[in-house]
Structures are given as structure tokens and as C-alpha cells.
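Morning F.,

Quick status update on the modeling queue. The single chain you submitted on Monday has been processed. Sequence for confirmation:
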Amino acid sequence: MRVLLGYSGGLDTSFLVAWLTREQRAAVTALTVDCGGFTPRERSEMTARAQALGAVDTLIVDARAELFDRVLRFLIAANVRRGAVYPLSVGAERGLQAEVLARVALERGFDAIAHGCTAAGNDQVRFEAALATIAPHLQVIAPVRDLGLERGTERDYLTQAGFPLPPSGGRYSVNQGLWGLTIGGGEMSTSDDPLPEDAWQWTKGAFDAPRARTIRVRFEGGVPVSLDGRTLSPVELIETLNVEAGALGVGRGYHLGDTVLGIKGRIAFEAPAAEVLIAAHRELEKLVLTEDQRFWKDHLGEVYGKRVHQGLFHDPLQRDLEAFFLSSQQRVTGDVRVNLAHGRALVEGVSSPHSMMAASDARYGERASSRSDPRAAVGLARLLAEPGRLHRLAEAGGSS
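C-alpha cells below.
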């Protein structure tokens, strides 16, 4: 049987290369859908490790640009943070990764697709939902989930067979991509224990000698296009921010939330670029959009993010929501000044050719617009207060 395995290089998929090859006599091709987060050296090491574990072939598909164009630009446009904290670093990738996996499997005539998702995580739902939508006739196997295997069992299997363990040694489940990195397992199995400093990846040691830096990000139509005057592709800009803002501790956090399965889960995450870009984008929108535009965009952004989290990347409603977000971004063009220090991104100023603030001659706290009636605010105040006034009168049994 020829099996195409979605291979991340972590413990679960490393175990599966060896297990499928040795126990199922399968000819395993390890496919890494590169959605970012890997250095050239790490990609090379992953490939060598898959071959050492028994893979007959290894493939890498660079999906970073496609990930931005089809997912991340909308997460930025919608300012998505699950639980008001987590920018969906991993959930953003899974639907696209499943699609690429199916695409390659169909093109090359594989007998089955395999993934390393567990029975207690969100990713199994994301992969299965995507595959059921775009390639319902493909056979999908998930031994880690279906056999109820634990990480200790997988480590023991690889060790006893003399196979290499992934760099983390399997203590933590680390998933890294363009939009951030997540760390599960270990202390994250509780609701109150912090992660030790040496378990962090991109922000490790950032607080040993605190530093500060101010950057400028430019957006055009809601898309980040330059950093400190350097024109960069969105992928290049995000990768640069992950390194440079991550070195200052920006984007480190914890997220405790509801899984698709209805249970609570907790992860640590590092998302330097997402932290900077969402904060900068949100403030720029405040300058160029109306209050009602932002209100409805925030509401629909919550819906959009929840559905990405649930694995509904390929659902047609997502395309409808994306059309709304694209329309809302037409004037989101301008420059944002962001101070990075002590692990936080503080937006210090925004400017735009579409500034609604600059379009008015009013000055908050000083003078009203020259086009307004100075007494109009009194009438507005009384209109706004009327329901409360009537409620108070009715409570006292009085009349107007």
C-alpha cells in the first residue's frame, strides 16, 4: 500500500513513518506542507529523519504564499484573536495543508492518506472536515487517534527500535508556522502551571536583557507591504517580524479555550508577527473606517475565526465573509508606528490618506466641527437619554 503521510517532523508523524513502514508494510512518502516556521536547516534535518525512519520518499510543498493569500490576509482583515488572545496560529494552516495533501495524493495515485492527529485535539476535526469536503473518496488513516496511542508509547517505540527522536524529544508538542508557534503538553496539561523558559522557542531569553525598538509598518488595502521603508512580500515581512519582534519577547502568550470536541484545552504560543500586525491593523482601521463598519467587522470576524478553528475552511460561508472583509479593506492604507518593548507591541501613531480624523476640522475636547450647530449636542443628549428617563418615570409611577 502506498501511503502519503502529512509529515511535520514532530513525534506523532515521526512515529507514523516508522510504524506504518514496519508494522503495516506500507510504502510511506512523507509530505511536508511548508506553511512557514522552518529554517532551511530544519527542513533538511526533517527530510533526513524521515528517510532514516523508513520513508521511501520525501516531498516538501512551499505553501507560505498561498497560506497568506487564502487565509492570513483575512485573519488580519478581521483582527481575529480567539478568546481575545490567540491569533489562530495553528488552526489557520490545517485546512490548506489537508487540501495540499489531497491534491498531491490524487495527482500521484496514492492508495491512502495518513495524518498524525490525536483523538483529543482539534486537528483531527480540521483534517477530516477538509478531506471529506474536497476528496471524499480518498482513504484516510489516523493510527495515533484510532489506536489511542500516548506520546510516551510513541517515544518508547522509536527508542527501542533505535530510531531518532525529534529535537524536542517528544516532551512537548510543538507546531510552528508562518502565523506563529504553539507548544502543548507538559505544563500545558494543567490550567495553572507556566512553561519553563527553556521550553519557549522564538522568544527564549528575550527578557534576560530587555531591549526596545520602534518600527513602522505600511498597509495597502489591509495587506502589510513594507517594514521600516523596505518593500517586502507579506511572507517576507511576517518572517522578518517573527524573528525581530520575537527577539524582544513580543507575541508570547497562553491560551485556555474550548476545543471543537467540547473540552477545555491549553497551549502556550509565540506569534510575534501576528501580535504586531493585528495591533497595527486594528488601530489603522479606527482611523479610516466608520464605527458601524468596525462593529460589524468585529462581529463577523469572531464568526469567521471560530469557523476556521472548527475546520470549516472550505465551507462556502467563509467565502461570503471574505468578500465582506475585502470590501472593508479598500481604505485601510497607511503607516503605523509601533514600539516593541518588554514583550508588548504598543501602537504609538497612525496616518493614512483616507484619515477620517484629518477630514474634519473638529478637535476632540476643544472645538466642534464648523459644520455643526453648537447646541446640537444638547438635543442629541436628550434623545439618547429619553428611554432611560421614561424607564425611571415608569418605575416611580409618574407621568411625563
